[in-house]
Amino acid sequence: MPSPVRIRRDVNSLAASDPVIRFYREAIGVMKNMPAQLSTPTSWRYQAAIHGYPNNISTTRIRLGLDAPGPGRDGADPNAVNTDIFPGDQDIFWRKCAHACWFFAPWHRMYLHFFEKTIMRIVAGLPGGPSDWALPYWNYSASSSAALLPAPFRNEFMDPAGTIPNHLFVRQRTPRANAGQPFLNLDAGGNPVPGNPQTRLDCLRRRPYAGNFGGPVGLQHDPGTSGELEAVPHNPVHSALGGGGGFMGLFSTAPLDPIFWLHHCNIDRLWEVWVQRQKQLGFLDRNPKTGGLAATGGWLDEPFDFHNESGSAVKMTSKEVLDTRLPPLSYEYDDTSDPFRGAPNL
Q: How far is residue 197's CA from residue 186's CA, in Å, rounded to a whole number?
């Protein structure tokens, strides 16, 4: 029997008390409280380390951020303790984020998939937890109010007495974001910039071939020449929300901020908008390296290492994640309308 197709919804369309948000918050709390964080694949810190982790095994230096720009700020893991046990296979599973290359979109789709499955398993075990929970996305391009940090992520505690932590909150953000103030599309003086340069969807306005949209040919983890989706809105949202020393500002710490996953869910949604347009234009099966048809083998079959929701090592390829409605993904977005429908050969 095929898996039911789950619906990923815009967080700004959900009430703060919506079960989707509540169960996300509670599941993160469970992940944060798992023992042996760095050697438990389904824990909060391990899941973040898949994307990146400060490149030094000294927990003291990692905790203080001494191996990254801005001592004591950027790249710090405030949860690091001297009793941390680093897994022997970290070279296989950690620091694997694909950026500035053609694997940017599919790798992050896989990453979101396994994170979502981990959350789903936890949620299903919580009182009243549904079996069809789906990760929400954050569509900051919809309006100026939508570009504010969603309200459920702003308060440190859930109660006035400050005894119940809000697991969606982190201090390591630009202060304007946690204060519910505009932090995107501003100049150095904090004034709005016309045209919304950090969240506009130029990535969907121009030519749709993969080398331009998704990134250049090859695989790399370090900053370089980005495709249009990664350049805007992906990068500016990371930078603006991370500020001078926040989690979102660096590959090594970005997933420690719970909003990271909603940001990348939106990036994945924009890729889906682009894919649907490709289908209409007849470009879906083109190989981004050669421009030819029938992109089988090679880049589509490149395997990537992850852990599933049970913590078991698995591999996944780009070929497996091209259609979100089919297993193993089995999800769709509530809105994949093309903002530039009818534009000439985009």
A: 9
In the chain the domains, ranked by start, together with CATH numbers, are 6-333 (1.10.1280.10)
SS3 content of the chain, % helix, strand, coil (to 5): 35, 5, 60
Residues of the chain with pLDDT under 70: 1-2, 54-76, 100, 185-232, 282-298, 340-346
Span 193-220, pLDDT tens digits:
655 555 554 544 544 333 333 444 343 4
- From the number of C-beta atoms within 10 Å of its C-beta (0-12, 13-18, 19+), residue 221 rates as middle
DSSP state of 101: S
User: Which candidate, 149, 169, 172, 150, places its Cα nearest to that of 32?
Assistant: 169
Q: What is the DSSP string of 119-159?
A: HHHHHHTSTT--S-----B--TTS-TTTTSPPGGGT-SBSS
